[in-house]
Queue: 4 jobs
Job 1
Amino acid sequence: MVADDGWNGTEDGYIVTSKTELHDRTYSEVREATNELNADRVCAARNRAADALDSCAEKRKDGENPSKP
């Protein structure tokens, strides 16, 4: 869910890698979809997704075509 949101990114076509922005965009939805999963686990999962998205964004900058994490 978080990786999908970040991958779809912005209207400019950029991948969202900011943990804060991803949190603001997805936190409530993830909590609802996971039956009120512990907040710490939601944040940990978001951080992992943000790190994976950051790696993809770096690969795009280097001219590669990474797949969505």
Note: The longest helix spans residues 39-61.
Job 2
Amino acid sequence: MSKKVWDLLCDGAVVYVAGSSTEMPSDVMSALGEIVSEETGGSKEVASRRLKALEKAQRYNVEAWS
């Protein structure tokens, strides 16, 4: 499954996260970080930078509430 998610991200997919602000946004970010790290063979820090770039490019969006 991680390869499919990685392939979608590489093809320009946009991620939208919506829901509870308590744990879901950080859990989704953590899961995506693990996927990026696994698929690229990079460190968690490199994966984090890639995900921050997705946010900056408005390809990772969070709408969360409590």
Note: The chain has a mean pLDDT of 95.
Job 3
Amino acid sequence: MEHEDPTMQGRYGHITQGMREQLLELLDGPWENAIASRFEMWPTSPIPLLDRELARWRAGTAAKVVSRISARNTQGLTA
């Protein structure tokens, strides 16, 4: 990491539970929205993994999610 101040290494050298939760939130919204968009185009897929995701939409058990954290504005991420 090559910081002159050795205390800076601790800031970037570990991952906290809060960081994990924020990353999941950051990634979950776009993923769910992508599946929703794909479902609107065609509700099935010959690819088993994708078809399992689409099945939640066919069953009516999934809801479109909008991430509260913008990928372009991650300044609000905290440790």
Note: The chain has a mean pLDDT of 78.
Job 4
Amino acid sequence: MNADAAALIGAGIACLGMGGAGIGLGTIFGNYLAGALRNPAAADGQFGRLIFGFAVTEALGIFSLLVALLLLFR
């Protein structure tokens, strides 16, 4: 296997992180909504944690895209 094929395989594996980030975002917002429906009074107190979780999960997807692009266009 040559270096170009290995770079393409690595870029494909790095792109799996973007799918994981999408699943993570759905889980984060779904759990927040379920908790807010059970206890509406506590929903405002958890909103900051929701936004922080969103930012960290979205950063994972962006970093995996960056790694894939670095492998493709080296």
Note: Helices lie at 3-14, 16-38, 43-72.
